[in-house]
Amino acid sequence: MTDKIKVIITNDQKDIRIPTGVRMLVRRCCNAVLVHEGFEGSAEISVRFVNDEIIHSLNKEFRNVDNSTDVLSFPLGENGVYDINHDTGAKMLGDIVISIEHAIMQSKLYDHSLQREIAFLTVHSMFHLLGYDHENGGLEMVRMREKEETVLTQLGLKRSDSYYTEEN
């Protein structure tokens, strides 16, 4: 069972107002992933809301990818070993950076709420902070997606139908 979970949320963009309840939703998502994974001990996670310009810059700097993206994960641990905050004893899992502009665009594309999209991006990123990866596709990607959907369903945010849009 997880102990204390601290989620530090900062809004580093001024263009879009973060809807009421989103900060609590992000905290619930982080907590739900840790409970689902049987994470033990206290944890700290940092979540930043940014615009496309900032996430583009981070993507280029840290991944050498010259475009914006929806979310970036910066894990501080490897193989279940994490840096420890010496003041609190909590394991520092890492940083999640979410582009609010991308989240809005994708919520429209997939025809679900902005809250559902932000929840998905948070849950997805949390699994990355815990060491899951989908870059190589295949079984790893399927397992990660199943875990994401299980957690989102537990949070009452079940996927409507599909992530694929139909061309008109």
Secondary-structure blueprint:
Blueprint: E1 2-11, H1 22-36, E2 41-50, H2 52-63, E3 71-75, E4 83-84, E5 91-99, H3 100-109, H4 114-129, H5 138-154
Parallel strand pairs: 1-2, 2-5
Antiparallel strand pairs: 3-5, 4-5
Helix pairs in contact: 1-4, 1-5, 3-4, 4-5
Provide structural commentary.
It is a single chain. Strand 1 (2-11), helix 1 and strand 2 form a beta-alpha-beta unit. The longest helix is centred in the C-terminal third of the chain and has 17 residues, at 138-154. This protein has a single domain (2-154), classed as Metalloproteases ("zincins"), catalytic domain (Collagenase (Catalytic Domain), 3-Layer(aba) Sandwich), CATH 3.40.390.30. The chain is 42% helix and 21% strand. It has 5 helices and 5 strands. The protein is globular and about 40 Å long. Strands 1, 2, 3, 4 and 5 form a 5-stranded mixed beta sheet that branches. Helix 1 (22-36) packs across helix 5 (138-154), helix 3 (100-109) crosses helix 4 and helix 4 packs across helix 5 (138-154). The protein has helices at residues 22-36, 52-63, 100-109, 114-129, 138-154; strands at residues 2-11, 41-50, 71-75, 83-84, 91-99. The chain is α/β, with parallel strands linked by helices and 168 residues long. Residues 161-168 have low confidence and may be disordered.
